[in-house]
Specification:
Layout (H helix, E strand, L loop, with lengths): L6 H23 L6 H18 L2 H19 L13 H25 L1
Helix pairs in contact: 1-2, 1-3, 2-3, 2-4, 3-4
Length: 113
Amino acid sequence: MNNPLSWFDVTKTSILLLLYVLVTYLGVAFRDVIIETDTAMLLLLLNIVSGVLLRKRMAYVITAISIVAFHFFVLPEHNSFRFQNYQHIITFSVMAFSGVFAVRLTQSQQQKN
């Protein structure tokens, strides 16, 4: 049932992880210039792309890691998991839902073909 990862799968995953790291780094480096919402939207886009391009389990894992990284590195109270504003729970929910939705939609389309 579990097919081993092909070289192409590893390459796609590596490129997406690199993009996640880049977006998170830009969100941290330019905190004074861009707001958290901009970084969240870029991560949201990457979550959707991950859902389309990656295998189901890998897309779920990367989506979860991106949400944790966003909370830890980008949101105020940097480098901690404290909530300064509980409205960010909505942001986390949307990011998680979009990743799950993209994976399920992609999986259903692949099963039809």
